[in-house]
Design brief:
Rossmann fold; 7 strands; binds S-adenosylmethionine
Amino acid sequence: MPRKDNRSITGCGERRRHARRHGHMAAIDWFRVMLDRHEVKDRMINSDVHTWCATTGRRVLRGIGVSEGDAVADFGCREGRYTIPAARIVGRTGCVYAIDRQRESLNELKERARGYGLTNIRTIWADFLRKALPLRPASFDFVLLFDVLHGVFFPEAAQRIALLERVHEILKPGGRLAVYPTHAAKYGPSHKQLEIDIHQAGFREISRSRRRLLHDDRLVRGWVLVYKTRRLQRSSTEPAAHETR
Ligand SMILES: C[S@@+](CC[C@H](N)C(=O)[O-])C[C@H]1O[C@@H](n2cnc3c(N)ncnc32)[C@H](O)[C@@H]1O
């Protein structure tokens, strides 16, 4: 949790005392080091992100069915706007695998997870389409594809279907996929086309709801579509063949 007492980090008294003792430049270096500390960074991320991480995010993910003990995979997690609330829901008996090809984002996510005291997040640095992912088939309860399945990253239907088939493969029988479709108007595909792709990869829709979501760093309203696997597959108990942290 961010500290309420600003004085202990940015406090002028402490900084002035340090400056008197070690000179002005040393004090500036010290201040930079303090700024790097998680509490300060965390307090500086905007208030929408805070509201989200503290309350709204958990409510939204619970509302679409993420539960304690679940194994969740967050494809395209970035810095974990959805990974963090998911990890807080699934608790110690569950886990969240956070996958992204941006190493810096994963590092940021790890730092945030540490700040929240979360030990149930595993990060995987990989390109979904290029690399075989170290995830066991039929081992996940929930997959999140939030703000990922659009024309910026997956302009071709064949790419989207390849990703969706991978997702299908790692879900347990009856496992669920939640999609937050974005940017359809600007980058495509249309919502209709996206639904066709998702169905083609073996999913059937079980719910759709309009929710308060975090898009980039802003709270917005958007649709979340939840699907179940249609094809049957054998289930496995361990989500990962091997872990990358
Ligand atoms: C717009 S961000 C969405 C982040 C997060 N899901 C959210 O809603 O806040 C999309 C993320 O997907 C990742 N991504 C896109 N294509 C990918 C690929 N082929 N392999 C791995 N990560 C990918 C990007 O690096 C980026 O971090």
